[in-house]
Design goal:
- The chain is an alpha/beta fold.
- It is built from twelve helices and twelve strands.
- Strands 3-2-1-4-5-6 form a six-stranded parallel beta sheet, covered by helices on one side. Strands 7-8-9-10-12-11 form a six-stranded mixed beta sheet, sandwiched between helices.
- Strand 2, helix 3 and strand 3 form a beta-alpha-beta unit.
- The chain is globular and about 55 Å long.
- The protein binds manganese (II) ion.
- The site of manganese (II) ion has 6 residues, from loops.
């Protein structure tokens, strides 16, 4: 696509200038999922001035970083000191500044994102690259193929693949372009795809987490939300996994909520069939943030919100918004 070609050129230009000016931290989204971490680490491989950093590593990402001994710096949400000579910052896979979890320094930014909704406000010198693709690692891979093929070691390829595999739900909702990029990542590598998939899927829950998942399943309730079939429940941990598990019951949408220390968090998932027919979870979460405060957004099929209203009210707000989304004939 021509737009993508222009974006890659804009990235190249931004990166060349930033690297000349000084150090360039590559900041990850605060959920620390495999897509954001894999994107940051892979992009950082193009030049020593770049370093992947963020406030949190999710479960899969933590294991991958440890296994591959990948360079990643954990920073704290407050009082992070950046190098004095900062060339700029890159933010990967975060739909808005508050999804990074730290206050960003006032330097030129390069933002790479694939969310349907976004809350970035650009200043002079900033570049936002937003593609309608399944994973941010797909964007980073496209850049590396073009401008830094020497950086594509097996470890870097694995980081990119892992982001793709997790963000597409093991390719269940991958766009066509994801397959082409994946093929290119596997070609000329020593990666055994099936073995690598198993490695990523190795689910290592502890007994207390398994208990929490099972209780979450036990509490699940079915609702008719307008034209959509919705299953809701609440759980104290692993909400994303629980939401995905519930989707296999055959409903259209699932919602898992949790309340801890005065903060309610909503995690929703929808089937591809329902997003094709009009479900837009990211838009629902954004609306909840407008109506009830807090932060919300994401993709059509996977989104979240967190804020200060109680769990029941947040859940009702979600059901009300989902009810408003009309089913379109396809
Ligand atoms: Mn992503």
């Amino acid at each position: 696509m021509n737009q993508h070609k222009d974006d890659i050129a804009a990235m190249k230009q931004w990166l060349d200038c930033a690297i000349e000016r000084g150090a360039v931290p590559v900041l990850t989204g605060q959920n620390g999922d495999m897509d954001t971490i894999g994107s940051a680490i892979a992009l950082s491989a193009i030049h020593p001035a770049l370093l992947a950093c963020g406030i949190h590593l999710g479960r899969v990402a933590k294991r991958m970083v440890e296994d591959l001994n990948a360079p990643f710096r954990k920073i704290s949400s407050q009082g992070t000191e950046f190098p004095e000579k900062l060339g700029g910052v890159i933010v990967v896979d975060a739909a808005s500044p508050d999804q990074v979890g730290i206050s960003l320094p006032d330097v030129p930014k390069l933002i790479l994102d694939h969310h349907a909704t976004n809350g970035w406000i650009l200043q002079k010198g900033d570049v936002l690259v937003q593609w309608d693709v399944s994973a941010t690692t797909e964007m980073v891979a496209s850049y590396l193929f073009e401008h830094a093929p020497e950086a594509l070691s097996d470890s870097v390829r694995k980081m990119l693949l892992a982001g793709m595999i997790t963000d597409t739900g093991r390719f269940r909702h991958a766009r066509t372009s994801s397959f082409a990029v994946t093929t290119k990542l596997l070609e000329n590598s020593n990666i055994d795809y099936a073995e690598f998939c198993e490695e990523i899927e190795k689910e290592d829950t502890n007994p207390s987490e398994r208990g929490s998942l099972l209780r979450g399943l036990g509490r699940a309730k079915h609702h008719e939300a307008g034209e959509w079939s919705l299953v809701t429940t609440y759980a104290g941990t692993l909400e994303g996994r629980l939401a995905s598990m519930l989707l296999t019951t055959g409903c259209d949408v699932t919602l898992v909520s949790r309340h801890r220390d005065g903060v309610t968090r909503l995690t929703a998932r929808a089937t591809r069939k329902s997003t094709l027919r009009g479900v837009q979870l990211g838009a629902i979460m954004e609306t909840i943030a407008e109506l009830h405060g807090g932060n919300g957004g994401g993709h059509d099929g996977a989104a979240g919100w967190s804020g200060n209203v109680d769990r029941i009210r947040a859940e009702s707000a979600f059901i009300a918004q989902l009810t408003l989304q009309k089913k379109v004939k396809v």
